[in-house]
Design brief:
The chain is globular, with a radius of gyration of 16 Å. The protein has 216 residues and is of the alpha/beta class. The mean pLDDT is 97. It has helices at 17-27, 46-53, 69-83, 99-104, 125-131, 167-190; strands at residues 6-12, 33-40, 58-60, 87-90, 109-113, 136-143, 153-160, 194-197, 200-203, 206-207, 213-214. It contains six helices and eleven strands. α1 packs parallel to α6 (167-190). β8 (194-197) and β9 form a beta hairpin. It binds the ligand Nc1nc2c(c(=O)[nH]1)N[C@@H](CN(C=O)c1ccc(C(=O)N[C@@H](CCC(=O)O)C(=O)O)cc1)CN2 and glycinamide ribonucleotide. The ligand Nc1nc2c(c(=O)[nH]1)N[C@@H](CN(C=O)c1ccc(C(=O)N[C@@H](CCC(=O)O)C(=O)O)cc1)CN2 binds next to β5. Keywords: Purine biosynthesis, Transferase. One of its GO terms (molecular function) is phosphoribosylglycinamide formyltransferase activity.
């Protein structure tokens, strides 16, 4: 097991509740890592305030100030490389990344997605589950690949969908699980137990099933 602290760079676009869960896990000794930087594509992301309050370096790279996606990703890659991060942790980061960017950090890019992948890739997952009459929904943590939300799944956690649920009700139930499982996955990565090999998620030298590690 690795004893050196893994360096994490967290990418956000909004509230930052997953970032806060990581900060709290580090402070509580449940995550042996250092969050070396938080980068947002939106200036008004409250997650930037959470990072500042925790004394973590922040950077806003506003995507509206770049000519196109490729130009933005070149600058984002440069900023991340300057931090010398061991993992790039997408936590509500709402930009589709170019294949060139993803390839530059292959195996070091993680994302949390609010659905039971491969169901509901993309956006508005909670309303889509409700509209489809699903009785179960949930969250997936996966390695990021060029295919949007198509990377190998590491872990999933399931929640019930109730008849009278709104999208916000369901989002809150899912996010309770997010805050629990993302720090756990990062602790596996930081300990050197979690890798991506041949587009598969590997935990403790064992290939994980397509639905990942079955969280309790
Ligand atoms: N190449 C990849 N990029 C990203 C992945 C991925 O798996 N491969 N995961 C996403 C995260 N994500 C869902 O989990 C996601 C984020 C953003 C979008 C999207 O449609 N973004 C739009 C802008 C939307 C907005 O600003 O509100 C866009 O980029 O044009 C879909 C899914 C992160 N990137
Ligand atoms: N497609 C990406 C996506 O929708 N991600 C979702 O954005 C929220 C961010 O919350 P946070 O900013 O409070 O961590 C989380 O629920 C995460 O699953």
């Amino acid at each position: 097991m690795s004893t050196t602290k893994a360096k994490l760079c967290v990418l956000i676009s909004g509230n930052g509740s997953n970032l806060q869960a990581m900060i709290d896990a580090v402070d509580a000794g449940r995550l042996n890592a250092e969050i070396v930087g938080v980068i947002s594509n939106r200036p008004n992301a409250y997650g930037l305030t959470r990072a500042e309050n925790a004394g973590i370096k922040t950077l806003c790279l506003d995507h509206t100030e770049y000519a196109d996606r490729a130009a933005y990703d070149v600058e984002l890659q440069r900023a991340i490389e300057s931090l010398q991060a061991d993992a790039i942790v997408l936590a509500g980061f709402m930009r589709i990344l170019t294949p060139e960017f993803v390839d530059a950090f292959a195996g070091k890019l993680l994302n949390i997605h609010p659905s039971l992948l491969p169901k509901y890739k993309g956006l508005n997952t909670h309303q889509r589950a409700i509209d489809n009459g699903d009785k179960e929904h949930g969250v997936s943590v996966h390695f990021v690949t060029p295919e949007l939300d198509g990377g190998p799944v590491i872990i999933q956690s399931r929640v019930p969908v109730f008849e009278d649920d709104t999208a916000d009700d369901l989002a809150e139930r899912v996010q309770e699980q997010e805050r629990r499982i993302y720090p756990l996955v990062l602790s596996w990565f930081s300990a050197g137990r979690l890798k991506m090999l041949n587009n598969k998620a590997i935990l403790d030298e064992q290939e994980l099933p397509e639905s990942g590690y079955a969280s309790e």
